[in-house]
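Protocol step 4 of 6: structure prediction from sequence.
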Amino acid sequence: MNPPDDKRREREERASEIEHVRELLARTVRFLTRCSEDPKSALSSDDPRELIRGLQSLGVAPEVAAATGPRPIGTEDGADVESDVEAPTPIVLRRRRSA
């Protein structure tokens, strides 16, 4: 294959992977929402072990992530690689004060 076909295939694979991650996160959010409303029905409708395995498969070992560094979002050889993906927003955790 020539280089443009390789790049297109890589972009398609990445888009497929991103779609898989979005679906997994959406299922996890639905499950957690159901758990907050009715835990028993949530456990009977979806298997949390499957969600856990899926989320763990997305994880990267800390030493691997530190070695590779953050993956840049932007252009590769002048072509916009991830035009449909927004830059990640930081997650801010705030502690509640106990009464």
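Step 5 (inspection) to follow. The mean pLDDT is 76.
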